[in-house]
């Protein structure tokens, strides 16, 4: 009962705060550690804010043995308590080389294959916090396989630590400056 009340409180809090904030960063680069039933992976993650509350995230991850994947995700960020603490939801595509397990029903034998080129669709949901120019995030990233792997669904929990390369204020300032210059250029014609 306590967990249900807490979840309802957090859900209400998330949607009752005015959505006037944006993330504290324009782009960030760092490391991601992921874990699922088949492997533990380490990789690079990069995020670039493209619109207010919207980022593109690229992830390259590998277990340095049998699984290497590439992911491109579009994410929508919303503040929870401030612009330094967000939750986000998104979707994207993935590709890579993965191991696969096929169970033969007649013999109950499991056939394990390696190096399968895969393509899939990813969803992602998580929370992130920006502290001292570092973005720490915890996410869940389910993957639906379209080709190359026997299993249709694999979920992965990930923890990322990214260093802020360009702050959101700096990115907004540069964007406004470009817009002013563009308007001035149109006014001269």
Automatic annotation (TrEMBL):
It comes from the Bacteria. Residues 1-22 form the signal peptide. Keywords: Signal. The lineage of its organism: Bacteria, Pseudomonadati, Bacteroidota, Cytophagia, Cytophagales. Residues 168-189 are annotated as: Disordered. It comes from Aquiflexum gelatinilyticum. This is Outer membrane protein beta-barrel domain-containing protein. Residues 174-189 have a biased composition (Basic residues).
